[in-house]
């Protein structure tokens, strides 16, 4: 057994497996064991893997447990030191694993990392989900170096430095197994979307580091499970954002959530004006689900109070909606400059 496991979660992803699984095997087999967790697929995914990739172990789940439950359940049986949680719609490259593991071994305070994530469709550009490392603004709104809202930068090596960030992308998440298990993995109530930001926030609240390492590069298609304009994705993103902030933000939660709800309201009105009524109703549904979960979220806050008082790396003390839409600052460096 190797110290590292590449673990791909699959749900009816035969299209992506046929396109990308070969590159994973070619560029990983000397550095890691390879696993596919199957979330109850019905599209012959398992037959395809068994017939074509004898070097891959399959962990079969009976039902679709989502991104969160699928990984939580599937990883239980693995005894590796490091996990690489990899989306099925990702193309990896030569030597993508060893620089990351070397950095883990050099700095025991690092809990999670991500590589440089570029677009598989436009390979000179960063990809939406992760880019060059994740940040949040003062109200918990996530964005990335290299991608703010729908503005995606070309990769001109402007972010080619190892950098402590706030969150690492779940599209290609390197994480210490011990930290994953000791912090109860992903929150199953999220099902999918923002679960990696929530986990990274919990890790940072315990003094751990989340790092971007440009020595490794992967190419991500993005939207392979739910497209970016899917109403269900809108619902999950708005609901999970409220869950995440309520659980983890150590400030006065009443004021933070009130501001967040007002911002969400503006987004809802914008959807109405654009005629996107299903997205508007998704925000309403997300809010009502949040209200019904407040007791549970309060209990988590009570049991997981942050002890450190210093500011967390990767939090930008601005409202990026204001910076982006009103001040017209379109990229990471413009927004974060003093």
How is the secondary structure organized here?
Elements: E1 4-10, H1 14-28, E2 33-39, H2 45-52, E3 56-61, H3 66-75, E4 82-86, E5 90-92, H4 98-106, E6 110-119, E7 134-137, E8 142-144, E9 147-148, E10 151-152, E11 163-165, E12 172-176, H5 177-182, H6 195-205, E13 209-220, H7 231-248, H8 253-273, H9 277-292, H10 294-303, E14 315-316, H11 320-326, H12 332-336
Parallel strand pairs: 1-2, 1-4, 2-3, 6-13, 7-14
Antiparallel strand pairs: 4-12, 5-13, 6-12, 7-8, 9-10, 11-13
Helix pairs in contact: 6-7, 7-8, 7-9, 7-10, 8-9
> What is the CATH architecture descriptor of the largest domain?
Alpha-Beta Complex
Please state the structural category. Answer: alpha/beta
CATH fourth-tier homologous superfamily of the largest domain: Spore Coat Polysaccharide Biosynthesis Protein SpsA, Chain A
Helical content stands at 40-55%
Number of domains: 2
Number of helices: 12
Shape: globular
Chain-averaged pLDDT: 96
Residue windows where pLDDT falls under 50 for at least 5 positions: none
Terminal CA distance reads 49 Å
CATH topology of the largest domain: Spore Coat Polysaccharide Biosynthesis Protein SpsA, Chain A
Order of helices and strands: EHEHEHEEHEEEEEEEHHEHHHHEHH
Rg (CA only): 19 Å
Q: What is the count of β-strands?
A: 14
Largest sheet: 9 strands, mixed
Report the CATH C-level class of the largest domain. Answer: Alpha Beta
Can you describe what's shown?
The chain is α/β, with parallel strands linked by helices and 338 residues long. The chain has two domains: 4-220, Spore Coat Polysaccharide Biosynthesis Protein SpsA, Chain A; 231-336, no CATH class. The chain contains twelve helices and 14 strands. The chain has helices spanning 14-28, 45-52, 66-75, 98-106, 177-182, 195-205, 231-248, 253-273, 277-292, 294-303, 320-326, 332-336, and strands at residues 4-10, 33-39, 56-61, 82-86, 90-92, 110-119, 134-137, 142-144, 147-148, 151-152, 163-165, 172-176, 209-220, 315-316. The strands form three sheets. Strands 1, 2, 3, 4, 5, 6, 11, 12 and 13 form a nine-stranded mixed β-sheet that branches. The protein has a three-stranded mixed β-sheet with strand order 8-7-14, with no helix packed on it. A hairpin with a 4-residue loop joins strand 7 and strand 8. Helix 8 packs antiparallel against helix 9. The radius of gyration is 19 Å and the shape is globular.
């Amino acid at each position: 057994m190797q110290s590292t496991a590449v673990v791909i979660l699959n749900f009816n992803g035969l299209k992506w497996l046929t396109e990308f699984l070969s590159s994973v095997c070619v560029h990983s087999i000397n550095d890691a064991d390879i696993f596919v967790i199957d979330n109850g697929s019905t599209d012959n995914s398992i037959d395809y893997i068994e017939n074509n990739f004898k070097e891959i172990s399959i962990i079969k789940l009976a039902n679709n447990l989502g991104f969160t439950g699928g990984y939580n359940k599937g990883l239980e049986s693995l005894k590796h030191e490091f996990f690489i949680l990899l989306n099925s719609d990702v193309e990896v490259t030569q030597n993508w694993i060893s620089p990351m593991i070397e950095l883990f071994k050099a700095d025991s305070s690092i809990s999670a990392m991500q590589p440089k994530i570029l677009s598989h469709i436009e390979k000179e550009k960063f990809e939406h989900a992760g880019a060059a490392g994740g940040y949040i603004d003062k109200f918990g709104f996530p964005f990335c170096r290299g991608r703010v809202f729908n503005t995606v930068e070309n990769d001109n090596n402007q972010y080619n430095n190892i950098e402590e960030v706030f969150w690492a992308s779940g599209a290609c998440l390197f994480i210490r197994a011990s930290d994953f298990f000791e912090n109860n993995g992903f929150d199953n109530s999220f099902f999918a979307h923002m679960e990696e930001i929530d986990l990274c926030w919990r890790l940072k609240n315990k003094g751990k580091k989340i790092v971007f390492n440009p020595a490794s590069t992967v190419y991500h298609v993005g939207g392979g499970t739910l497209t970016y304009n899917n109403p269900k994705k809108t619902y999950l993103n708005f609901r999970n954002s409220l869950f995440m902030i309520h659980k983890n933000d150590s400030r006065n939660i009443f004021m933070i959530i009130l501001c967040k709800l007002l911002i969400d309201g503006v987004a809802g009105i914008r959807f109405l004006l654009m005629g996107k009524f299903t997205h508007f109703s998704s925000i309403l549904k997300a809010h009502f689900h949040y209200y019904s979960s407040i007791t549970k979220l309060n209990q988590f806050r009570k049991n997981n109070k942050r002890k450190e008082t210093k500011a967390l790396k990767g939090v930008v003390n601005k409202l990026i909606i204001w910076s982006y839409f009103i001040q017209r600052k379109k990229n990471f460096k413009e927004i974060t400059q003093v």
